[in-house]
Fold:
Amino acid sequence: MKGFALGEIASQLGGELAGDATLRIERLGSLESATPATLCFIADERYRAQLKTTRAGCIVVAPVLRDEAAARGAAIVTPAPHLYFARLSQWWVARTRARPQLGIHSSAQVHPGAEVDASASVGPLCVIEEGARIGARAVIGAHCVIGAGATIGADTRFAARVAFGADCHIGARGIVHGGAVIGADGFGFAPHDGAWIKVEQFGGVRIGDDVEIGANTCIDRGALDDTLIADGVKIDNQVQIGHNVRIGAHTAIAGCVGIAGSTTIGAHCTLAGAVGVAGHLTLADHVHIGPLTGVMQSISKPGAYMGAFPIDENANWEKNAATLRHLYSLRNRLRALEKKSS
Amino acid sequence: MKGFALGEIASQLGGELAGDATLRIERLGSLESATPATLCFIADERYRAQLKTTRAGCIVVAPVLRDEAAARGAAIVTPAPHLYFARLSQWWVARTRARPQLGIHSSAQVHPGAEVDASASVGPLCVIEEGARIGARAVIGAHCVIGAGATIGADTRFAARVAFGADCHIGARGIVHGGAVIGADGFGFAPHDGAWIKVEQFGGVRIGDDVEIGANTCIDRGALDDTLIADGVKIDNQVQIGHNVRIGAHTAIAGCVGIAGSTTIGAHCTLAGAVGVAGHLTLADHVHIGPLTGVMQSISKPGAYMGAFPIDENANWEKNAATLRHLYSLRNRLRALEKKSS
Amino acid sequence: MKGFALGEIASQLGGELAGDATLRIERLGSLESATPATLCFIADERYRAQLKTTRAGCIVVAPVLRDEAAARGAAIVTPAPHLYFARLSQWWVARTRARPQLGIHSSAQVHPGAEVDASASVGPLCVIEEGARIGARAVIGAHCVIGAGATIGADTRFAARVAFGADCHIGARGIVHGGAVIGADGFGFAPHDGAWIKVEQFGGVRIGDDVEIGANTCIDRGALDDTLIADGVKIDNQVQIGHNVRIGAHTAIAGCVGIAGSTTIGAHCTLAGAVGVAGHLTLADHVHIGPLTGVMQSISKPGAYMGAFPIDENANWEKNAATLRHLYSLRNRLRALEKKSS
Structure:
């Protein structure tokens, strides 16, 4: 039979079930596209109005929406609906998504000196080099390249087409998306007579447990010591992390961020989309940087920081931007007037 | 015989031919590097001066340049030279570029439950998973990975090394360049006790007809519903499109743009290079965003918008940027002076 | 025996050796993680304090630190320690890093019409198309795709998973990192009736000698003529270079930079991280652009330029950014006051 009974879901994941425990849930979905066999959630009272219009069979809500939700159909009441739904989504996937085939695909090129756990899965056309170790229940998608001496922890999953360089390491329960390049050379050169002399990069990349790394993201290997990504860090797509960067535990980094070499980011930080952080800086724990902001100096005080130019209609922007190029002299003119009038 | 006679070109593509119809054109080229066997175009009167210096055998021009162009050699006169040249370039490629070999390369890994049209081409070392469907005359380049249940429309071409995820769909006549990752997980987490709990992503990516997607661009799958890219959308390289974004028809997105999750962009918009758009916004049709601009609020009025910091010599920038951090207090001081003097 | 005697290093690479020539060096490392068998360098007097705390066996220093360094252990004294260390790093790698296996891996797909030098190495699952030429001692990593007619110069190394398009060329001693896409189509369309008509791209990419190209970086092929990257250019990760861009010799481009089509960058320039350069511009030689700066106009004067919004605490930023949207009218109010008071 397709799906799961509401009663089973609530007994496994908790929450107070208000409504018919035998109702069959066939998918998790959004309020807009829900059917009577769909389970949804409302994370925020802002979406309260959708309670009236959705066709969802059951909605996960906070206690404040209990009566309103139960009046229209089944509901699961829990103090943190988003968290509940996150756990439910994992529970659901574990029971419904096809497991990749165990073992090493016949088309993969696995060096005899590599160790692949018997419970791991290595996809078609992968290349696993000498001395690499793939942990228990790890899943390596099609077309991945795992360099010599690299280690992949238990239950870690690589999507198709990840390049994971020699002597790079990732812990347990990690997720790495397609196109990510872990362990390319850092950008290191000594200037000489107008040219750039390459400094070879000897470090690796060391990634903790429960780390997720987005598609086409790059994390460079260290110059001498390792680049370090602590436990629980989440990194979105198209992110660039330079050599010898250190990212503290549970920091989240949104898409298109760039972090230059040798910078240390604290734990529990958030970097919004397209943030740029210069090299050799230190950001304290619990620092939150707004979108499109450039960080050019170290930040020792936790808090929210921002530095993006405000958008405007083109004509207004032109006038304001042109004036901005004379702001300092405007300040001086203001001072002169103040002096005169005092 | 190499190339095509001018007369054949004009008879197939239209325009008024002024000059020798038997002249043989061997390549399309730029005014600077043209030879007497090269056909060029002038899109803009700004380039008029090059009429005097180019060695081109024939030039596609607008009526305003007809006499000047014809005086120096052959010309094709058409109201829209750029459009004419675009169509000519496609006509030329269809007649001169080697077609990839029909059928499935012997080194490709195609699941028996996948359907590949007999007129399609699947390159070396591709992986095509169960239930995927490849349409008529579609070309899948070397090293592509097509996920389970994905569909590729007729005449769509993938360059080498595209990752196209499970349950993602693209229509007819699309082009996807190398390194693109379509259908990686969106960046979705519920915060809990200082850590991030993954929300599994159940949606797909649904892409219309005549869409071009650049190299190393990412389009994430939706969280619950699909991410949507409408017909005729053109996306450049290194672009990041988050989960559940919707892009309206014929919108063009330049390189290095990032669009955060659940944002809706209208039809016929243009986003210039390195634009960043925050999540959960709505941009109307015919909105045009200038380069390096951050869009933090919805835009309901069509028009041109901009928000980039003006570049300056370093010393000037430093003074102005430092003053900018006190702009609000400068405004207050100005107000105080105004009050005093009134 | 592991490593090299200090005396051998100094006799091969020069510098004045102060200390025990028989001391065995087993690795190059950082001052922080050094052991008595580690050789380090100090590039800058700022790091002088670490002379007291490091356990390094030998330190490469400038003459100014000679006595201080020699007092604590062995030292190599040279006017340019960073340059010395760069050369030493190359010397070290040449003697210690495993050379890839000579010849073509049995799983690679090499067209019979391609030419691979007998001293070159082609990794597992590569695809080399018709007419491509791979030079002496070149190394092509696993999963690379080399297009028809492309040429790879002597001693050039491609990491795993490089896509190098048809009719693209790179000279000698180049390095290209994983995920780079060289030779995707430029972003060229003619607008017509609200839609975009593709302009086929006929040019290639021509890259000089001693060029390094970062992971997941894209360099598009030219529309009609070639995109040009001169000798000695160094390009970091996640960089986007549009069609027909020309980069002058020994210019260095940091991560996340985007350069729009048909722009010419001079020689010996530096573009810091996340710089954006608009299309059809010309930058003179020796122009240096600071991080996150947008270049919207040509620059004819060598020097340092900058244009990033200064970061601030969120509340301050909000007030200043809101005021910035009225800067032009503030200027007018200031003028009015000046007139009144004069």
The helical segments of chain A are 6-13, 66-72, 81-96, 314-324, 327-341. The CA atoms of residues 217 and 238 of chain A lie 4 Å apart. The domain at 103-252 of chain A is CATH 2.160.10.10 (UDP N-Acetylglucosamine Acyltransferase; domain 1). The mean pLDDT of chain A is 97.
